[in-house]
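Support case: user asked for a sample of complex input and structure output to validate their parser. Sending the pair below.
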Amino acid sequence: MLSTLASLTVTALQAKLRAREVSPREALDALAARIDAVDGRLRGYLSTDLEYARRAAESADVTLPLGGVPIAVKDVVSVAGQPCGCASKILAGYRAPFDATAIARLRAAGAIPFGRTNMDEFAMGSSTENSAFQLTRNPWDLSRVPGGSSGGSAAVVAADTAFAALGTDTGGSIRQPAALCGCVGLKPSYGRVSRYGLVAFASSLDQIGPLTKTVADAALLLGVMAGRDPLDSTSLDAPVPDYAAAVRDFSIKGARIGLPKEYFVSGIDPQVEAAVRAAVAHYAKLGAEIVEVSLPHTEYAVAVYYIIATAEASANLARFDGVRYGHRAADTNGLLEHYGRTRAEGFGPEVKRRIILGTYVLSSGYYDAYYLRAQKVRTLMRQDFEKAFAQCDALICPTSPVPAFKLGERTADPLAMYLADIFTIAANLAGICGVSLPGGFAKAADDGDRELPIGVQLLGPAFAEEKLLGIAHAFEQTTDWHQRRPALG
Amino acid sequence: MRYLTTIGLEVHVQLKTRSKMFCGCAVEYGAAPNTRTCPVCLGLPGALPTMNAEALRLTTLTGLMLGCDIAPTCKFDRKNYFYPDMPKNYQISQYDLPLCVNGAVPLHDLAYPKDAQKSIAHPGKQVGLVRIHLEEDVAKSFHFENSTGIDFDRAGTPLMEIVTRPEIESPEEAFAFLTALRQILVYGDVSDADMEKGQLRCDCNISVRPETQTEFGAKIEIKNMNSVSGVRRALAYEIERQVGELTAGRPLRQETRRWDDAADQTTLMRTKESAHDYRYFPDPDLMPVHTAPLLDAARTRLPELPAAKRARFVQDYAISDYDAAVLADDRALADYFETAAKAAPKPKSVANWVLNDLLSALASAGKSIGECPFPAASLVEMIGLIDSGKISGKQGKEVFAEMFATGKTAGAVVKERGMEQLSDTSALEALCDQVIAANPKPVADYRGGNAASLNFLKGQVMKLSKGQANPALTGEILQRKLA
């Protein structure tokens, strides 16, 4: 009974809570038991606050849209009173004194943010191996990575140790782990969800989004979090539709789905390509029109991303200096040594690599050649998408070129790791929305019986989440990939 | 060898906003340390800046007042450097698209130091501006014996930076520039611009070169001046020091120096080698600002500027340039004068009373015009009593002093003191008859051609009336009766 409760979707759980078949306390206890049973092997959570969660569950108003639903939160989103360490040593001991706007809205809708999920330090990475604290394992194969940077959030949703989780996506950090763990991961359009309280990695790219078991759940969470926030100037004042209803009522017939030819090139795992092609055929069968489109500047995405993201990160991470909170180096002599040693001890190698790269590209004499040029290419990429979306409602492509890889397989080669995001980065640079959904399984090369999830990615125009989720929902309703569960016992 | 001096100023002005530049915290000084802070101005992880529209409007208004060009859009950038008083280790400022560019500050004679007003090198000079931009202030550090405390109450308060062209040629011109700028800022109610209170801070760039040399000399920056007279003294000191170095054959290098007001000298802070690379880039947390609505708002708040007011006072009230300049020096004084001048038949006498009597009374009482004990209408009433002959000019001074001391109206003072002049012709005629009858000798003298005797007779009438007889009227009646 308990483990079946934990495997419910948010939508199903809320229906049971509202019908008083299950109490919020029972739901929470079931989840806690599941975490107890599984998370020791998975290590998706950095910490949980079940004491707070139980108190919140006792007083939960189940008539609210998310009344009594526990939610896991990536360690980069501020929840008042809980640690917000970004899986970094430099934020040792820091607890957020305020709620992120997304969290405040979830709480107002009755959700209970109860646990901090593991991630790559400061969301920099694609395997969650850059966490300063622990390795999170892929629920489908404990020797493999869950993807990243929101690897903890994807793993706990896939393993039924969370009903849903929040992640953040700067270059694919929601969609790629969702693909590798076999759950739904939505990156909203830039400006759709307030970034207030999200510890910034790259401010012009970051978005908070849900990782869920179904598209309907993603729609439900997005609807609660989305909308203009006076505390975030980059949040857009656009109406928030009833995403859950829009998804239910969507008709796939006549929808135009674009196949970007630059996304089907060498380097893709054949099983991944086959799954995506099968998804395309499936959409055609459902009555969608398939059109081929071109995104000619795709090849520059990774280079542009690693200039813009690191430039912004070099300034965003400057505040972690040990002066007022977090790690502070002991016995330093003078200000310069204080800064140097505090940051040398507090940041991991990937974070340092990106701060140095970002500092370099902004330096006097290099700014025009790198940062300014990257911004110009970014504009061209945005225009690529505008042209493509004139011909179709959504694009379809792989989320990740490969299924989950082995722990340690790519840590020695940062460039190989950066290529994990080649299909996801462009959406962040263009500010559009994207979703990864379960689209099949690959047989692991070294272990014939082992099945690894494959993610199919859909990309939609900015602020067209209604249609994007509708198209995703149509696939999900007519396939059963999302219903499979890893064998964790 | 003669040397030429080139000075450029960077002026930081604290704007009169209720809240900080990028958050809702109150701009308030003197509160307990770190009580006017929030996640945004503390730079906590995840906090984001949002723009203070009033700060943008005040800067736009300043741009309008100084004749700047205001671009259709401006943006905010991050200026990166590490220092404990900067919560994010970057400052949000404006780099290549500031709110205002160009413009100028006119230097009027009275803006110069008093001792230099007779020897102004370039009367009517305008000092050109490069730009005006908006940024956030840093926190305040307090250095204790073994530690440093930081008060973040000041962190994030709006700061407007005004940068001049290198067009200032002497310490006196720098003084005049700051005085004239300050006056305009106060006119626009943009800032109280009090240097002593840190509301206006100024860095000076100064170089000297032999007059035969065309390119500028090494730029020396002076920081830490907290009064307009301090700026003048620091610049005078630097000119002497730099000329001394050059004369002695020691070349100067670009460097930053600190002014020590007590010791009356500058000391070296850092050389050019340790200059920062600020790595400016557009702040992705803030959207570009469209200035059209700001301009609309600022235009409705554009005051009459000091120069226009001075010219208009001369024109409308027939007063001298100098008097107009003194009256317009302080917007509140100008308003007081103008209220009175409009209600009085002879504005010139209002100007005289304000400039001579009121200003010195205020000065010796240590009061500002805002604290003047009586309204402009009372002054007009008092002048009217003199002009209509109800009281004498001499009595007027007495009435004025009483009004200033008590705030009573002129009429009340005159009544209380029984000062009203006797202008009733029949009563005066009776008194004159009495005096003529009692003083046959002077009467005869007058009739014999001694005009001075009339004054004696007038004096007798005044005496008889206990000083209340209208002197002019008394003279007329006596003349008529003795004709």
